[in-house]
């Protein structure tokens, strides 16, 4: 289990990033940079956040033909990031190619970033899966199958709901990562998240990392909110 909650930096400008990170001068964070921030600021924003000493999960969810994903991953791994992801729907050959790209691109002397996969987007419903993707099995079965395919492809883990983590752990090896968003402290604003869990539940249900956005980024005091979530995740003062 990673002791640092991953903070989702869902901002679009570098000045918002600067403002937010200025509160965390004493804390080395593990942050998530997603499409919104990356597509508007490019690799420079990743280099800047790394230069401040923070770890980065680059959440770009690559999904293309194997050769394109391999070459793209090679370039992204050169940014010396700590975690990155693909869509498992791209298939085994694509996931293996992604890992090859990572191994080729990781700077000498650095540890390669963890490579994880998205199984089914949480915005996909059972009904949409059946009528749009023509997949008749229950959603959870599809998620578990994708997790096993991900592990068979040599990847390190999946993004999943904390509610699914236990079942995924049972069907994969113990070191397989379950990175879980949708985290809220008890009684907190849910936003558009429907299937939420507390840090304690996520921990007990087998999550290896938690991803937390708005409960920290929109808090009146982000540092205090971060420390409260971090303490609960680490079982401090529970
Ligand atoms: O603000 P909140 O804590 O809901 O943010 C969660 C972060 O995790 C956001 O960046 C969101 O895009 C991401 N995410 C998610 N559910 C998934 C995959 C990613 O909420 N299944």
Q: Could you walk me through the main structural features you see in this protein, from its secondary elements to its overall organization?
A:
By secondary structure, the chain is of the alpha/beta class. The protein has one domain (6-233): Alpha-Beta Barrel (TIM Barrel). 43% of the residues lie in helices and 16% in strands. The protein has helices spanning 14-21, 35-41, 43-51, 66-77, 92-105, 126-132, 139-152, 162-170, 199-204, 214-217, 222-233; strands spanning 6-8, 30-34, 55-62, 83-87, 114-118, 157-159, 177-180, 209-212. It has an eight-stranded parallel barrel, surrounded by five helices. The longest helix is centred in the middle third of the chain and has 14 residues, at 92-105. It is globular and about 45 Å long. It starts with 5 loop residues before the first strand and ends in a 5-residue tail after the last helix. The chain binds cytidine-5'-monophosphate. The site of cytidine-5'-monophosphate has 14 residues, from strand 8 and helix 10.
């Amino acid at each position: 289990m990673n002791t640092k909650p991953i903070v989702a930096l869902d901002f679009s400008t570098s000045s918002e990033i600067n403002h937010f990170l200025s509160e965390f001068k004493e804390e080395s964070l593990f942050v998530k940079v997603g499409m919104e921030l990356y597509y508007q600021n490019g690799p420079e924003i990743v280099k800047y956040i790394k230069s401040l000493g923070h770890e980065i999960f680059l959440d770009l969810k690559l999904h293309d033909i194997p050769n394109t994903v391999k070459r793209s991953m090679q370039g992204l791994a050169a940014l010396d990031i700590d975690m990155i992801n693909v869509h498992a729907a791209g298939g085994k050959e694509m996931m293996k190619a992604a890992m090859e790209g990572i191994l080729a691109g990781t700077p000498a002397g650095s540890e390669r970033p963890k490579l994880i996969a998205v199984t089914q987007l949480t915005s996909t419903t059972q009904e949409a899966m059946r009528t749009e993707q023509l997949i008749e099995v229950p959603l959870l079965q599809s998620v578990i199958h994708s997790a096993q395919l991900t592990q068979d492809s040599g990847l390190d883990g999946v993004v999943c709901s904390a509610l699914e983590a236990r079942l995924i752990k049972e069907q994969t090896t113990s070191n397989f990562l379950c990175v879980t968003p949708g985290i809220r402290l008890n009684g907190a604003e849910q936003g558009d998240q429907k299937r939420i869990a507390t840090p304690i539940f996520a921990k007990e249900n087998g999550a290896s990392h938690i991803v937390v956005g708005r409960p920290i980024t929109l808090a009146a005091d982000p540092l205090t909110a971060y420390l409260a979530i971090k303490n609960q995740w680490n079982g401090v003062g529970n």
